Structure formats: C-alpha cells, structure tokens
Amino acid sequence: MRFLLSFLFVVILKLAFTQNKVLIIGIDGCRADALEKAHTPNLDSLRKSGIYCATSWQLGKTKSGPGWSSMLTGVWDFKHNVSDNQFLNHNFEEFPFFPSYVKRLDASKKSVLVVGWKSLFRISKNNGWDCCLKGKNDNDCLSKTIKLLKNESFDVNMIHLNDVDFAGHTTGFELDNKKYIEAIEEADRKIGKLLNAIKNRPNFKNENWLILSSTDHGGKGKHHSGNSIEERKVWWIASSNHIQKLEITANDPGSYFYENMPSDSSIIELYPSIVDIAATAINHLFPNLSNKEFKAWGLDGKSWLDFKVNSSKELYAENELVLDKKELLFYNKACSIEIKINEFKK
Q1: In degrees rounded to 5, what are phi and psi of residue 23?
Q2: DSSP assignment letter at 220
Q3: Which segments of the chain does DSSP mark as H helices, in order?
C-alpha cells in the first residue's frame, strides 16, 4: 500500500510539472490521395501515434485565404468572412486567430508562427500571435522554426510550408505528376527534422507535445477554388502519446460554400476537419476545457483529445466489428472509425 501511494505521488508530481506544447504543421495545397501515394515516413509515424483522417472534407471555399482562416479561427467561411487571398472584409475581430483565446486564458502563454506566404504573414502579425516570422522560402521557414524549437519555449508553434502548393500550380495537382509527389516527400523530410528538433530539446522529457497537421485545400489540374472531390477532400492528423489511435473515414458531407452541394450535418460531426485544429490545440494547453466552452465562444470546431467512439451518437456498440485481435471497426452508412491497436503500415 505504501509503495502504491508513493508511485501515485510520483505520477501526480510528474503530471503537475509537465509542460503541454503544440506544434502545427500546415502544408499548403496537399491533396489527400497524393499524400497517400507519396513516401512520407515522418507523417506516417504521426499517423500511427494518434488520430488520422484522409477524408477531412473542406466545407468552405477551396482557396488558401479562406482555408487558413478556417483553420486558425476555428470557424467556417460564413463566420470569418474571408473569401479571397487578400483577407479582405475579414471578421477576425469577432473570430480571432486561436492564439488570442490562449492569451485570454493565460497571459503567460506564448505563440509563434513561421510562414513564407506574404499574405498570411501580413494578416497574422497583428492577429493574436506573440511572434510572427516570415521566411524567404520553405527551407528558411524550416531553419527559423528549428532555431526556435532549440532555443525558445513557445507554447504554440506553427510552421506553414508552401512548396507543395507551388508545385501544384506550376506543374499540376495530379497523382501522376512526379514533381508534385516529390514536393510532398520533401515536405515530409522537413517534418522529420522538426520532430528531431523537438526530441532534442533540453527539457523534452518534461514536455507533452501535441503535433497537428493538415492542409487548406487540394487541387485539380493546376488550380483550386472549385468544388471537385480532388479539391475538397483533405486530411487531418493529431499525434500525441496521450490520445486514442484512430483512423476515420467519412462520406462526402457536401459543402457550406458551394450552393449546389447542400451540407449533411449528420456526417460533419463524425470526422475531424480543419476548424477542429484550433479547439484541439487550445484543449491540449487547457485540459479542463470542454467542447461546451468552445461552442459558447461561437467556434464551429471541436477538440478530439477526449473523443471516444461510443460518445458519437451515430456510432453505436452494436455496429462494432472485430477485425482481429488488434483492430476494432465502428461503422454506419456515413462513417467508419477504426481503432488501431497495432502499428499502422502504409
């Protein structure tokens, strides 16, 4: 009994001094099916240690300004009001970038964004981030982010990588385009260097990192902004040692933006989307918060940190299928959620 009490005391003490940190990796213009085709061992490692969804449907306009606004505010287009890449007529006063909420909850928390895209840098530097750095290109963004991870202690860290989108616009957002696939693989190599930088931090053993990664849109031909599956079907990753390992697949729920594609709310709630990045990041820093608070703030996004399969009203226990002793699959006509007990293999 005395040993048990001592053990519990050590565990509680460790948890009390653990620092929760967030790294968000945004890869602009990365199609979900292209990510599946590319050789991406570092993103694969994140997939197998958390939640992965290859059908994280973009419900807004498939353009960078609206897409990154949705991810960073936690609300869709009809709330943040961004429809172009100049962020004109934005509503960030009512729905700010999510580091603003972090600062309101704890003024000592610090956030940093490293970005090469001029428009996103310009609008971000006065909207909630404690520090906003502009890189000359993806390599410079990587260098700056690694330096920050080595020498600084920001609570929220985000890097925006733009070369995949550039490859799509110049050579084509297509599966058979070698240059586009190679750009995704190069982004993955950069992610490997970011993960190594985190592991080499002097206080890493006392830190609890959540890695979030997604994209703003896909693409078709050399363009995006349309309502095709290739443009709207994106992907979503949340990786941590403390969240359930899930792979989620959802049917096409339609769109909030494209009028000829009415949205299906019964599907939308079943999968993680880009607006969930903000709530999930905030929840990691403040574990006592719940989705009730996020809803009260007016956010469309929700946190996936405490998600349980049986908490979804659409997925019942009688829909459980035992694939083998290492996997479980919960499903209905709209969505399937696979609990990955074994290691994910691409």
Answers
A1: -125, 125
A2: B
A3: 2-17, 32-37, 41-47, 64-73, 77-80, 99-105, 118-124, 138-151, 163-171, 178-199, 229-232, 265-268, 276-285, 291-296
Inter-residue contact 270 to 312 (CB < 8 Å): yes
Q: Which amino acid is at 318?
A: E
Residue 81 lies in a domain: yes
Domain count within the chain = 1
pLDDT one-digit tens code per residue, 287-344: 999 999 999 999 999 999 988 665 554 444 334 444 454 566 666 777 777 766 444 4
Q: Is residue 239 part of a domain?
A: yes
The answer to whether 237 and 187 have CB atoms below 8 angstroms apart is: no
The reported pTM is 0.90
- 3 within domain boundaries: no
Phi, psi of 297 (to 5 degrees): -75, -10
The helix/strand/coil state of 298 is: coil
Write out pLDDT tens, residues 157-187. Answer: 999 999 999 999 999 999 999 999 999 999 9
